[in-house]
Structure formats: C-alpha cells, structure tokens
Amino acid sequence: MDGRLLIFSGSANPELAKEIARCLRMNVGRALVGQFRNGETRIKIHDNVRGCDVFVIQPTCNPVDHHLMELLLLIDALRRASATRVTAVIPYYGYAKQEKKTAGREPISAKLVANLIRTAGADRVLTMDLHAPAIEGFFDIPVDHLQAAPMLADYIHSLNLANPVVVSPDAGGVGRANRFRERIGAGLAIIAKQRPEPDTAEVLEMVGEVDGKTAIIVDDMISTGGTLVEAAHTLLDRGACKVYACATHGIFASDALEIIAQSSMIETIVTNTIPQSSLTSQARVRTISVAPLFAEAIMRIHKDLSLSALFA
Ligand code: R5P
Predict the structure, then answer these.
(1) I need a labelling partner for 87 at 20 to 30 A (CA). Which of 48, 69, 207, 251 fits?
(2) Region 149-288: CATH code
(3) What distance in angstroms lies between residue 187's CA and the mean position of ligand 1's atoms?
C-alpha cells in the first residue's frame, strides 16, 4: 500500500491506541475528539492525511452509542480529508450479541452497525473475537478477524495447572473452548445454560468430568459476570478443585466485578480490548495486552502481507 501509515484514536481506548503506536514506533495522529455543548460529537483531524493509509482505533464499548458515533465521524472526517484508505480497528465490536432476531419485531443491530461503518467510508475492518463469527459476513469490505486465544492460552500454559479441564460456559462456545483445550492439552467440559431473561444466566446441565481438576472457563466476553459465576458454582459443586476464567473482552457491566470478587474464582484473565479500571485487581482480574498483535496486523495490512500467521 502506498501512502504513509497513520493511526488515530477515538476516546474509547486511547491507552491501547498509544501502546499500538509505540509498538509501531510512531505516535497517534493529532485530532480533536470531543463534544459540542448541545451534546453532539465533535471531530477535527489536525494532521494532514491526504494520500495516507489510516487506521482508526476505537472499540465500541460502553458508552457504546457515543463511541460508535465517534468512530463514524472519525472515518467520515478522514475520508473527506482525502485519506487513501481507512481501516476501522474495532478491538471490541459492540452490539454483537444482537446479531439475529430472537423474537419478532426486533432489530438485527450488529448488521445495522456494519452498514453504518461501511457507509461512513471504512475500506476495511480489523477486529478481534466477534461474538458471532457470522458478523464478518455483515460487511461487504474485507474484515481481518484476530483471536486472543493464543495469548490467553500461553498465559494459562505458563501456570502449569494440575489436571486442567477447559470449560465452555454455554453451547455456543464449544468450538472456542475446544480450540483452547487443544492449545494447552487439557480435557473438555460443556455447560448448557439458559437465559430466562436478558442479562440473567442459569445453568441447566453439564457434560464432562471435572472432579479433582482445575477448571478453566473460556468465553468471548464477560458482561454482567452471571454466566461466569454460575458456571464456577456448578464446577465447584461437581468437584473441581480450582476455577480460572479467560475471556477476550472484559466488559464488566454493572456489579460484575463485585460478584466476581465475591466468587471463588482464583483468577480471571481478560485482554485490554476494552480499558480496564483499577477495580479489576480487587476482583483478581489480570489483563493481557493485545497491542503487539494489533500492531503486527496493522503493519502487515499496510505492507500487503498475509495475516495468516497471526491466526495460528
Ligand atoms: C454468551 O453468549 C457469551 O458468550 C457470554 O457467555 C455472555 O455474553 C456473558 O454475559 P454475562 O457475563 O452477562 O453472563
């Protein structure tokens, strides 16, 4: 790709953007990302981007709509300022859980968001662990979909846990848990969960042997923490000696950190796709940085190199 490589950031995760830029030995581009007094989002790009290959780093985490709007306006501003190519780098893709209708008269929000990003002028998307891989197909532009599993698995492997068993906390996560299990050489257990209402999780049944083992729950995200804590109770009831958890996106909505702190979870490992507060340490949450992986992916996209090696 001709043209200079530039990185810009919205206000969602400026620390991650700085860390990615540091890995690439560059600075984050200068831009005003703020608000008018009437509450509308205000964007002004200060650097010249004409003819450049620009990457905008913005996870659409809470406040989701605000961060999404910043992303859309940043892309629009860059397009209008004649950037040659704009890549939306969305480490955490919000609205992903609304990727299908579960009842009549509901939106498919993840598809609408994909349309908005494309309409704003993004040429490509770089993201990580979409809640549903099918969301990739909601875009008619190239999507590079990174995975945090290799990093999370390396950390778990380094703990040398005795008798490890990887647990999927719901039926939808079995493929993910199985791939994780293969990486660390562990057994597999599967929990069947139901949601009697949104944001409430209930364990129905569990398949697999966990008695006397160290259980590692693997999920894509922790939102209210309900899924995690319910799964941990079940595992301990069935004889697991210790429970760890790994998830790419630590959303920690409402009192999630409190309930995790009060649970018997030994350690919960997440990444910094979403910025983490200092409260995480009280809940025994460890954060692993995805910045080096994103930096490598950005460099490869810029140089038109394959990204396959990053998915291994
Ligand atoms: C469910 O399909 C996801 O993979 C997660 O298990 C879920 O989003 C976690 O949500 P919560 O922490 O609110 O139970």
Answers:
(1) 251
(2) 3.40.50.2020
(3) 22
Domains of the chain: which residue ranges? Answer: 5-147+291-311, 149-288
Site to probe by mutation for ligand 1, drawn from 93, 223, 254, 285 as the one with most ligand atoms within 8 Å of Cβ, is 223
HEC letters along the chain:
CCCCEEEEECCCCHHHHHHHHHHCCCCCCCEEEEECCCCCEEEEECCCCCCCEEEEECCCCCCHHHHHHHHHHHHHHHHHCCCCEEEEEECCCCCCCCCCCCCCCCCCHHHHHHHHHHHHCCCEEEEECCCCHHHHHHCCCCEEEECCHHHHHHHHHHCCCCCEEEEECCHHHHHHHHHHHHHHCCEEEEEEEECCCCCCCEEEEEECCCCCCEEEEEEEEECCCHHHHHHHHHHHHCCCCEEEEEEEEECCCCCHHHHHHHCCCCEEEEEECCCCCHHHHHHCEEEECCHHHHHHHHHHHHCCCCCHHHHC
Which band of pLDDT confidence, cut at 50, 70 and 90, is reported for residue 199?
A: confident
Active-site pick, 193, 213, 242, 303: 193
List the structure tokens of 3. Answer: 């043209």
What fold, for 5-147+291-311? Rossmann fold (3.40.50)
What are 110-144's pLDDT values in tens digits? 999 999 999 999 999 999 999 999 999 999 999 99
Query: Does this chain's domain 5-147+291-311 share its CATH topology with 149-288?
Result: yes
